[in-house]
Amino acid sequence: MRQEYDFVIVGAGSAGCVLSHRLSARADLKVLLLEAGEPEQGLYHKAPAAFPKLFKGRSDWAFFTEPQPDLNGRELYWPRGKVLGGSSSINAMIVVRGNPHDYNDWKMPGWSFGEILPYFKKIETHPLGPSEYHGDRGPLHVEVRRYTNPLTYAFIEAAVASGLERNDDFNGPNQEGVGLFHVNQKNGARQSAATAYLRPALPRPNLDVQTGARAHRVLFEGARAVGVEYRHHGLMWRVRASRGVIVSSGSVQSPQLLMLSGLGPADQLRQHQIEVRQDLPVGQNLWDHLALPVIWHCKAPVSLDKAETLANVARYLLTQGGPLVSNVAEAGAFLRILAGAPAPDLQYHFGPAFFSNHGFDREEGHFFTIGPTLVAPQSRGMIGLRSADPEAAPRIQPRYLSEPHDLEVLRTGIELAREIAAQKAFDPYRGPPHGRQAGLQEKAELNTYVRQYVQTLYHPTGTCSMGEVVDERLKVYGCENLYVVDASVMPKVVRGNTNIPTLMVAEKAADLLLSTESG
After folding, report:
1. pTM of the prediction?
2. Which secondary structure element, helix H or strand E, spans residue 207, and what is its range?
């Protein structure tokens, strides 16, 4: 492996895979990608329905938050991908871009929805493309899923009966309504960022990928980032970058690496005896989505709760079809549930199964789950250092439900979920509500339910945000040749699942970096 590169990318998650693909396409640029995890392996990474099996395994950092005062003191589990492909290799594969209002509300030059739409199209090979909203030549294949459970179609019909508009494309002219989620799958298999972007680039002689590499700090000469120090197989290494160090370690670990390198809130850095290079609000402005499981028994044996049979595994291995193609959250909806919302403030995820506590909780029988999801939160938190040890987990303090608005949205979401479940379309399937939510009617009772069972939907953003930590070209303020490219640069979380927006950020960043090189 070389000792000096043009670009060193720290983190092979969604953004790092895109950057490796696009930058190494220039044969004159030498690129190194560092990743703490290892490649995707086995059926669990391939079969979409198996994604919960990856949680707390070798491909997961398995972080936990600080105790949450407004969630009964609970410490919430945060899965984050520790694998080539990052969280795109362990997520539910939902293809949602967010709402145009989100990007226009960022108020950052070059990042309005009209300006970034071409990058969303560039990402995908979509069955609805080419069109005004979709592309048909991108690395990431999108499918409208080979398998959909009958309970999911009942959910869509029930939501329409409750007043929602039918929507066959949440990434088209209008986000609002109810419909099937499109997924990043190819021929019924997960297509992560590693599969779509990194794997085709691996044969290039100017791209090196080092797995099992844990970054400890960015190296500087004055204000110029010149390389990265990392541990690999128990030994410490230093590698130089002549044109740029790109931190793409996600909304938890990108701010951690910057702070370990002397970029962050000065008081916090001094507390850990770290030399302050730049006093910046690194780690602040943490946004996340919360989701709540609202569950019913299903009186017909059609759910995914019994899908893990030898017959279905064999069917999947032979045909890449059947229930294991499901991404569990098969359908959803976006709507404005509180008066005055400028865009959807609630999303639903529908799963034809018992899905609670990230899939760890299991019960006998058949179920379906309607998950009200807070997509325009007002509560904000922070990522901080627990110590100066580069391999210690950082402090994660989301301050969930610290703003009353967020609790109101979720509580109101329960009420509409019950209305949807009561519609005629569910009559062949609907059993009694799950015992822990049965009989809850009063506002205080519903609030208690929310505080006890709400969980992250895995969408942390904002901790190295544009306008605060990086500029509109994603360069860190006060530094030369240092960039952050991942979901942490989003000034506000978007209304919807964040993987596709992260790919968009990286596609645009690659163009920005290459235009600088050309200049």
Report:
1. 0.97
2. strand 207-211
Going through 294-393 in order, the beta strands assigned E by DSSP cover 294-298, 331-335, 346-351, 367-374, 382-384
**What confidence score (pLDDT) does residue 106 get?**
97
Please write the tens of the pLDDT for every residue from 180-198.
999 999 999 999 999 999 9
Residue 275 sits at φ, ψ, to 5 deg, of -60, 130
Measured over the CA atoms of residue 461, residue 463, residue 465 and residue 470, the dihedral's sign is negative
In the numeric block, the tokens 């539910």 are attached to 92
Per-residue pLDDT reduced to its tens digit, 322-380: 999 999 999 999 999 999 999 999 999 999 999 999 999 989 999 999 999 999 999 99
- The residue-averaged pLDDT of 86-102 equals 98
Helix ranges, 215-371 (H): 250-260, 266-271, 310-319
Strand 346-351 vs strand 331-335: parallel, antiparallel, or unpaired? antiparallel
| Residue 94 amino acid letter | I
Please classify residue 273 by burial: count the beta carbons closer than 10 Å to its beta carbon, then call 0-12 exposed, 13-18 middle and 19+ buried: exposed
Residues annotated as catalytic are: 459
Q: Cis peptide leading into 390, omega within 30 of 0?
A: no
Inter-CA distances, 191 with 42, 84, 88, 169, Å? 14, 12, 8, 20
**Taking each helix axis from N to C terminus, what angle separates 499-518 and 14-24, rounded to the nearest 10 degrees?**
30
Domains present along the chain, CATH in parentheses: 1-118+188-287+380-399+460-519 (3.50.50.60), 146-180+290-376+402-453 (3.30.410.40)
